[in-house]
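Methods — Computational structure assignment.
A single polypeptide chain was analysed. Its primary sequence is given first, followed by the predicted tertiary structure written as structure tokens.
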Amino acid sequence: MKKYLLASVAALGIVAAGAASAADLPSRKGPVAAPVYVPVFTWTGFYIGANAGYGWGNVNSNGFNNIGNLDGFVGGGQVGYNYQIGQFVVGAEADIQGADLSTGGNFFGASVKTEYFGTVRARLGVAFDRFMPYITGGWAYGNVKTSIPGIGFSSDRTHTGGWALGGGLEYAFTNNLIAGVEYLYVDLGDKNVTTLAGTGKVGTDFSVVRARLSYKF
């Protein structure tokens, strides 16, 4: 029994010595790879893009017969800058639109047409990562071409006192490509039209719904 105990103690000593020697050997594990961090998307930056959509609205006349409503295609481009502060995004945008907004002619042949308009607006949005709803508003300008046959004439004047208000949704498919949809209400104000019967006012306001695609630098 004594010999058996001595043999067991000796065996345990050999195992312990082997474990200690193995602990002193250099590790064969490879270097630990550094973690890869995906950059967080930011809305901050300049952008430029194009848009297209449909417009419809009213012609308000004072002193003339009812001219009618106008509608038609709109399309153009936009340029702007966004700056993200936490979850909020503030920015400014300018756009110029070609338009085919026309009333056609009424019973008396009178008509109103807007061939172009543009806006300069502030924007305020709330970012949910790559998705951003926003509101926008600012100055609007454009031409209102009026035709009052018989007692008047055609006039083409740019309005500088109008305004625009609206909102939209945008989604960044990549770090550079941003698509969205936008609604704008545009009021180009009133213009004076002089006829043989006197002077009257013609005002134009309309709504626009348009799809947009922008490239962010």
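Note: Residues 2-24 form the longest helix (23 residues).
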